[in-house]
From TrEMBL:
Key word Cell membrane present: no
Keywords: Oxidoreductase
Naturally occurring in which organism (per UniProt): Streptomyces xinghaiensis
A matching Pfam family: ADH_N_2
Name of the featured protein: NADP-dependent oxidoreductase
Origin organism lineage: Bacteria, Bacillati, Actinomycetota, Actinomycetes, Kitasatosporales
Keyword Transport applies: no
Gene3D superfamilies named among the record's database cross-references: Medium-chain alcohol dehydrogenases, catalytic domain (3.90.180.10), NAD(P)-binding Rossmann-like Domain (3.40.50.720)
Amino acid sequence: MTYEPVPATHREVRLARRPSGAPAPGDLEVVEAPLPEGEVLVRNEWMLMASAYRELMKERPGLPLPPFPVGEAPTGRTVGTVVRSQDPAVPVGALVEHFQGWREYAAGPGGAFAVRDRDLLPGPEYFLSNGPTAWLGMAGMAEAGPGDVVFVSGATSGVGSVAGQIAKARGARRVIGSAGSKEKAEYLVEELGFDAAFDRHDGPALDLLRELAPDGIDVFFDNTGGEQFEAAVQLARPGARFALCGALAGQNGDDTSAGRPRLDLLTAISRQLVLRPFACFHTPDQIDGWNRQFAQWLDEGRFVYPRTVVEGGVAGAPQALFDLLDRKFYGNVLLRLTGGTDRIDEGGSR
Ligand SMILES: NC(=O)c1ccc[n+]([C@@H]2O[C@H](COP(=O)([O-])OP(=O)(O)OC[C@H]3O[C@@H](n4cnc5c(N)ncnc54)[C@H](OP(=O)(O)O)[C@@H]3O)[C@@H](O)[C@H]2O)c1
């Protein structure tokens, strides 16, 4: 059964070569290719862009994921609509989530596509939030809750912008975020409801954090590592919980040592800090649990979806990645691959 007319060819991005240093034009190429074939055919609508893709372009990424293959379209979290199907469990017209991003159409066995309830969230792109990771870290690892003073480093990242709001929604007393500019620090406070934020370029992280958390912190959600991790250790209260999520300080530059902070072991031991590095594998339980929680908080008006929408279709994907790595975006970065919408949305979007 076919849902709508489909073309004979589509556009996809391929990894032309592994970058040396920062990814650059020429590393990724946009090509016209025959429409992929499979039991299920999906027209891709949105893809989540992320810093991690830089790492996955390397031959040996430092992440628990396979490298992008050279000469093929990379992987990426994507949602789209089923336009042809021979699998009754994945019917035409269904909204599905999958990993065949960077292309206009995806195809494969029905099991490669997870059906989502279109009515649960305000739009298909909401299913691509970094919520599962933020939720696992803030609720599962750090157990942030009433009375806690929480610090989120890299708080304008996709994960960080959701994690800080989760802490607030769970009753944290004070949520502090770090950002890469004054404008981004303002965005955290004015649009996402953080209690305070600082621009990490304004001075030593220890001084900036101490000013905003003079009595110390109970929870640290770390997206950056480096100097901010070291500052959080110094300001941790006894028994503070650290959810260690990312190492942006080293990941997005060539100085990987920036992502490898020193641990003041004596302080960590004497304060009995709980350090929890974690990896979110987006299991069905993690995804469904988050989406239901997200829907409830959106309905209650207690949450915004922090995001930047990038137009330009598949051809715009390489530049969207370069711009993300240049820190031009806010929150979850969503690339519209095909289709369009006139929906007018609430705050948190750019
Ligand atoms: N543990 C897990 O399961 C898991 C899952 C997903 C992601 N992660 C990790 O979580 C982190 C956030 O991921 P994401 O996809 O949400 O990130 P993202 O959206 O790609 O983050 C982009 C933002 O990171 C900030 N940034 C860039 N370079 C930085 C630097 N040198 N120091 C500090 N901040 C920098 C910039 O914000 P500013 O301009 O405000 O600095 C930039 O806008 C990454 O380290 C990622 O690998 C972990």
